[in-house]
Design goal:
The complex is a heterodimer of chains A (48) and B (448).
Chain A: H1 3-16, H2 23-38
Helix pairs in contact in A: 1-2
Chain B: H1 3-11, H2 17-35, E1 38-41, H3 43-58, E2 69-74, H4 101-108, E3 111-117, H5 151-158, E4 164-169, H6 175-181, E5 184-187, E6 207-212, H7 215-225, E7 243-247, H8 257-272, E8 276-280, H9 288-310, H10 317-326, H11 331-353, E9 357-361, E10 374-377, E11 380-383, H12 384-389, H13 394-398, E12 402-409, E13 415-421, H14 427-441
Parallel strand pairs in B: 2-3, 2-4, 7-8, 7-9
Antiparallel strand pairs in B: 1-3, 4-6, 5-6, 5-12, 9-13, 10-11, 12-13
Classes of the chains: A mainly alpha (48), B alpha/beta (448).
Chain lengths: 48, 448
């Protein structure tokens, strides 16, 4: 799942559950996840 | 009065456990309404324990350095017969049937339990202002946070309400409040002190350890927590030739001016005392935050999932929201964070292969105002939570022993701390170096 798709789904779910105030926190996690996935220790099955 | 000083006075019959307990209870009576450090004051039990321990000493039974010492306990650890609230209404009605093993060891060592201290709800925060029992206040400036999550613990020692306290540390929750309140805080090596009977936050990162007025006192309490009764004061390691490594990039990039000045002064004093200081790099330092965030959020959300669904209204609003975000962390990202943790552990191990300790500030900022959500550091504004965790969370990920010792104050008289980090499974060696550093950076001054 891409980070953009994840964030969209997470925000929609939070709103459905009556917690729209989660949105800025989920956006902060998305930024951290972007950094995590870009790190050189993140696995990549294709040769880099 | 430190534990060491009390021990001498008790054995010389210059004071008694009952007398020192009364002095702590008087301080609680005078200051707890202002500081909100305690959730439960165990006055009657403490007096009974003190009298019994005085009788034992008079009869020739000496349990060691913690015999007759009043200690407060973070209200996250089970003490038999008392509630473990975790500063949350979620745990209403709980009463511990047994002591946590670490507490049982302290009881055996002759500790007097003076009370249970306030904290950030479920230890999930760094300021101790989100608590079902109201915010804890810093004894140095009650408009400011004492740090967290062991904020009530640190405040209780800094204000002379206890001679030592027991905290927990999952991202810095012993070292952060120790630095913010101007006392010593030790997070031992991961796994060294039992976390059984302690409400978890993130089990792979949770540690139990002491907050004290001196490094020697931290040594005594740390050993007692393991059921290991040390009688002698540890010998400081001579500083001549001790190799200190300072990780500059990331760790010293974002510091309050006064914090930076106190840190550089401390390094200067250690150099003058014969220590060798090198600058080093932790190459993946910029990944610490993302790695830590994914692990703690997911671990905490898993522990709280059932109560988040069943009784969400019992959480304080901010803690509930942060816990809820952890329910969205993907398994694949959790696995990436585990890989990052391994890389970071190897990098800290490599730095310590060439050095005796790492030295860095404990907190990049002095204690923030209660309720502040962001702080300006130079030209950059960042969230209080990010700043408070920035320099400590790495060593929860890696499991290395780390401690904060006082290192002067800002122009506004707010405490600063220096953090020392040792090799894994060598907490005693770290303490012996810290003992020597303390004598040069901050000769012990006590509260009681």
């Amino acid at each position: 799942m891409t980070i953009e798709d994840w964030l969209k789904a997470a925000v929609a779910d939070a709103e459905r559950r009556g917690m729209p105030e989660l949105k800025p926190l989920l956006e902060a996690i998305a930024r951290a996840t972007r950094a995590l996935r870009a790190a050189d220790f993140a696995d990549d099955a294709a040769p880099r | 009065m430190t534990i060491e000083e009390l021990g001498k006075a008790l054995r010389a019959r210059d004071t008694s456990a009952e007398e020192i307990t009364e002095r702590c209870l008087q301080r609680i009576e005078a200051d707890n309404a202002r500081l909100n450090a305690f959730i439960l004051v165990m006055a009657d039990q403490a007096r009974q324990q003190a009298q019994a321990l005085d009788r034992e000493l008079a009869a020739g039974r000496d349990r060691g350095p913690l015999h007759g010492v009043p200690v407060s306990i973070k209200d996250l650890l089970d003490v038999r017969g008392t509630p473990t609230t975790a500063a949350s209404r979620v745990r209403d009605g709980h009463v511990a049937e047994h002591d946590a093993p670490a507490i049982a060891h302290l009881r055996q060592a002759g500790v007097i339990f003076i009370g249970k201290t306030n904290l950030h709800e479920f230890a999930f925060g760094t300021t101790s202002d989100d608590s079902a029992f109201g915010p804890v206040r810093n004894p140095h400036d009650p408009s400011r946070s004492p740090g967290g999550s062991s904020g009530g613990s640190a405040a209780s020692v800094a204000a002379g309400m206890a001679l030592a306290t027991i905290g927990t540390d999952t991202g810095g929750s012993i070292r952060i409040p120790a630095a913010a309140c101007g006392i010593v805080g030790l997070k031992p090596t991961y796994g060294e002190v039992s976390t059984e009977g302690v409400v978890p936050l993130s089990r792979p990162l949770d540690h139990v350890g002491p907050l004290t007025q001196s490094v020697a006192d931290a040594f005594f309490v740390h050993h007692a927590l393991q059921g290991d009764h040390i009688a002698a004061t540890p010998a400081p390691m001579p500083l001549t030739g001790v190799r200190l490594a300072v990780p500059r990039a990331y760790f010293c990039d974002l510091l309050d001016d006064d914090v930076r000045a106190r840190f550089e002064e401390a390094l200067g004093r250690l150099r003058s005392a014969g220590a060798h200081v090198d600058d080093i790099a932790i190459h993946h330092a910029n990944d610490i935050g993302p790695v830590y965030l994914h692990l703690t959020l997911a671990d905490a959300a898993a522990y709280h999932a059932a109560t988040l669904d069943r009784m969400p209204e019992r959480y304080t609003p901010n803690v509930r929201l942060r816990l809820e975000t952890g329910r969205y962390v993907l398994a694949e990202d959790y696995v990436r964070a585990l890989a990052g943790r391994d890389v970071l552990r190897r990098e800290v191990d490599a730095a310590l292969a060439q050095h005796d300790v790492l030295a860095l500030p404990t907190l990049p900022i002095p204690a923030p105002l209660i309720g502040a959500t962001s702080v300006q550091v130079g030209s950059r504004s960042d969230s209080v939570r990010n700043l408070m965790l920035r320099l400590t969370q790495l060593f929860n990920l890696t499991g290395h022993p780390a401690m904060s010792i006082p290192a002067g104050t800002t122009a506004a008289a707010l405490p600063c701390g220096v953090q020392l980090v040792g090799c894994r499974a060598q907490t005693d060696a770290l303490l012996r170096i810290a003992l020597a550093c303390e004598a040069h950076i901050n000769p012990v001054r006590t509260a009681v």
